[in-house]
Amino acid sequence: MKVATAAYNLDWLDSWAQYEDKLAAWVSGAVAEGADLLVFPEYGAMELSTLDGPEIAGDLERSIRAVSDRMEEVQAVHSRLATAYNTFILGASAPVIEGAGRPVNRAVFYAPDGRRDHQDKQIMTRFEREPWDIASGGPLKLFDTALGKIGILICYDSEFPLLGRALQDADLILVPSCTEALSGYWRVRIGAMSRALENQCVTVMASLVGHNLWSGAVNITTGMGGIFGPPDIGFPETGVLSQGTMNQPGWTYAEIEPAAITNVRANGRVLNRSHWAEQLPRADSVTICPF
């Protein structure tokens, strides 16, 4: 399979048609390169707040609600594109409000046959907890697809090994991210690469990029696309299958051979995934040594 992961820049949108045209251009461009799976980043949907004008886009709470109100339309567009181009798409995540509760950070996964489901972020960053008041969402899911088993760890979630371990049967783990500083990008990248090492799988990181001074939420973002595997047989010695250019919008691509994942899990020079359980009794029996 061929995977495309985005370094996605937000735009000021003057019309809904402009958003549809932008999304269609991104999708068609990746499919023209042979991509079977497209991954957009965390909070890429925040550009939709500009459709309600600068006062809404610049206000944290009102921009959240403006984006949430448009998600049914957004999902309809993505579903049409996934079907028309016969591709899987992980849409850019968005704050979604259901009922009277606080919004969750939700990424929707679209299949070529019109089916869709979603993954909510599990653990909130400080920014999400404090000024945004974004809530933790529903449980982790494992999507069994024609491309293999796919899990999703949204940004900060990728930094927690037990969440990654819960997805140990995933062939691919998608990591849509939104990070302000270079240090944030590297925290998520290190998490994504660590999960690839532990689970002996492929992780796919997408990033939001650019400066959007109109936004009260995602005004500065840093990152690039990256696709990672275990640094072992059948994969690059660095574990980096492909990476983009820092803060340069566009797609990053990699060819992934599912048989390579199966082989490294069975015949790798190390077997991290199989040996995971051996650490548990040792981790629970630390000896304190006066020194």
TrEMBL record:
GO terms for molecular function: hydrolase activity. InterPro entries: C-N_Hydrolase, C-N_Hydrolase_sf. Keywords: Hydrolase. SUPFAM superfamilies: Carbon-nitrogen hydrolase (SSF56317). It comes from the Bacteria. Residues 1-258 form the CN hydrolase domain. It holds the Pfam family CN_hydrolase. This is Predicted amidohydrolase. It comes from Ruegeria halocynthiae.
